[in-house]
Specification:
Elements: H1 5-18, E1 27-28, H2 30-37, H3 41-54, E2 57-60, E3 64-67, H4 72-96, H5 99-117, H6 121-139, H7 144-158, H8 168-189, H9 193-215, H10 222-226, H11 233-236
Length: 238
């Protein structure tokens, strides 16, 4: 399908939000976007409404659109439900995936592997996000897919440091993440639900500490920011 200014705006805003080129809570200037993409205000507003429905932006009456924020409540809810939703989506994916979806997953994994080998952080963010999006599509569940999509936005933003390893341990974790993706594909090929779910929790644990590095800047312990390690936010919250 040919790209249009409207589709370019939609894809560019999604990419910039996932890769943190647009920070959480950033105001979006309707007038400047209209001028930059050669669009009138109406199609720009259409894109804003679409992105708001998908969880990327927030539209406030009389205050315009902004990138969806991340705050204590966001983090608390994210760490509460992410593993459960990923596990449920994984089970449904095994039950319902179509061969064409598995083929696309394999292609996405190869792009993710190449990006990791080239240390291309932005490409890794996008290909990892697409890899997990395909799981949602495989699930074929109209209730789970929107929930997964919303989670993946913040997973990409919270975990972006994972794709910019600064030491050998982080590089090892990244290599293991690539191996986990291979494991997901093998488990799907084998129609092995339990193997997929086991990998979901291994994969989650792998990225959890890197997410806490984003939450707490270097030299500041996570509990100084959120009242306890990120995985204990619920226990610490009323």
């Amino acid at each position: 399908m040919a790209k249009t200014p409207k589709s370019n705006l939609y894809e560019d805003l999604k990419r910039q939000i996932l890769t943190m080129e647009l920070d959480p809570d950033t105001d979006l200037d309707e007038a400047s976007l209209s001028e930059r993409y050669g669009l009138s205000r109406t199609p720009v507003r259409d894109i804003f409404r679409r992105l708001a429905g998908e969880g990327y932006i927030d539209i406030r009456e009389n205050r315009g659109a902004r990138v969806i924020p991340m705050n204590h409540s966001t983090l608390r809810n994210f760490f509460l439900v992410a593993p459960m939703i990923y596990a449920a989506v994984g089970r449904l994916a095994v039950q319902n995936f179509k061969p064409a979806q598995l083929a696309e997953l394999k292609q996405t994994q190869e792009r993710f592997r190449a990006a990791s080998q080239n240390a291309d952080a932005l490409a890794m963010v996008l290909e990892n996000n697409r890899f997990h999006e395909i799981f949602g599509e495989m699930s074929g569940n109209v209730y789970m897919q929107p929930s997964l999509g919303r989670l993946l936005i913040d997973h990409a933003r919270i975990g972006h440091t994972f794709f910019r390893p600064k030491n050998e341990d982080m590089r090892r974790r990244l290599r293991l993440a690539v191996e986990h993706h291979d494991g997901f594909i093998a488990a799907l090929d084998a129609h092995d639900e339990d193997a997929v779910v086991d990998l979901v929790f291994e994969h989650w644990e792998l990225s959890r500490e890197n997410m806490e590095m984003f939450i707490a800047p270097q030299g500041l312990k996570a509990d100084a920011f959120v009242g306890g390690p990120a995985t204990q936010i619920l226990e610490k919250s009323p």
